[in-house]
Amino acid sequence: MPSAAIRRSLVSDQVFRLVCDQILSGTYAPGEKLPTQRALAAEYGVNMASIREAVKRLEQLRLVEVRHGDAMRVRDWRAEGGLDVVAHVLFRAGGLDRGTLESLLEARRLMLAEAARLAAERRTEDEAGRIAELAERIAEAGDDAGAAQRLDWELMALVVEASGNVVFALILNSIRQLYLEHAGLFQAVVSDSGELVPLYRRAAKAIGAGAGGRAATAVAELAAAQERRLLEALG
């Protein structure tokens, strides 16, 4: 890619983040008109190509609506946004929004518990065996937090796959990039993994036995323990 295109891309990224943060923070309210693209180009001192690229990304996230012959208007991201907005809300203005993080963790716990319930009813023998194997590999990871974290993600992804619920799978796919890009932030979910190992094993055993209620309870307890570790680590 030519260096000029790279520089333009970096500029459009900066413009996107600036406008995105203003919308998510409420500086621009839903329904409010944004400055014209030409006005934004003048305000930020960038070319129109960079503005158009930034606006296209804002449209894709359903943060703005662009109508021919009319100004750009801010959309209500809480009512119209999708999961692809989560990362931007979580890290708006360059910081970590704790309330959004707590909501994300709560949603994770509820989804994984229900996925475990369904997995116990629908899993194949091969899936049950792989889940049990992953639980033991987490136990063997010991103090290697990076390895334990990768195995934890793999196990939870397999539980969701075994649940047979395609919407759960798509939700997990939507947060995969967020999780992997900020792996260091989320590593505390497997801190003191030795204390979590019995919960991994309980969940794997319940799924293998086809005990949906026990599987859901074990995974809910595991996810709740992980939430506590992460939130305590963040202070």
Protein model, in words:
The protein is mainly α. It has 2 domains: 3-81, Arc Repressor Mutant, subunit A; 96-234, Four Helix Bundle (Hemerythrin (Met), subunit A). The chain is 74% helix and 2% strand. A two-stranded antiparallel ribbon has the order 1-2. A hairpin with a 7-residue loop joins strand 1 (64-65) and strand 2 (73-74). Helix 2 packs across helix 3, helix 6 runs antiparallel to helix 12 (212-234) and helix 7 (125-141) packs antiparallel against helix 11 (193-209). The two termini are 43 Å apart. Residues 1-6 have low confidence and may be disordered.
Short summary of the structure?
This protein is mainly α and 235 residues long. Helix content is 74%, strand content 2%.
Please name the defining characteristics of this protein.
235 residues, mainly alpha, Arc Repressor Mutant, subunit A, Four Helix Bundle (Hemerythrin (Met), subunit A), 2 domains, two-stranded antiparallel ribbon, 2 strands
Blueprint of the fold:
Elements: H1 3-24, H2 37-44, H3 48-60, E1 64-65, E2 73-74, H4 77-80, H5 86-90, H6 98-122, H7 125-141, H8 145-163, H9 166-181, H10 183-186, H11 193-209, H12 212-234
Antiparallel strand pairs: 1-2
Helix pairs in contact: 1-3, 2-3, 6-8, 6-11, 6-12, 7-8, 7-11, 8-9, 11-12
Average residue-wise pLDDT: 90
Task: Estimate nothing, just give the exact number of structural domains.
Answer: 2
The rough form would be described as: elongated
Strand order of the largest sheet: 1-2
CATH architecture of the largest domain: Up-down Bundle
The radius of gyration is 21 Å
CATH topology of the largest domain: Four Helix Bundle (Hemerythrin (Met), subunit A)
- Classified by CATH, the class of the largest domain is Mainly Alpha
What sequence of helices (H) and strands (E) makes up the elements? HHHEEHHHHHHHHH
What count of helical segments does DSSP give? Answer: 12
Oligomer: single chain
Strand segment count: 2
Beta-strand percent range: under 5%
Quote the distance from N terminus to C terminus: 43 Å
Regions with pLDDT < 50 over 5+ consecutive residues?
1-6
What's the CATH H-level homologous superfamily of the largest domain? Answer: GntR ligand-binding domain-like
The level of helicity is over 70%
Structural class: mainly alpha
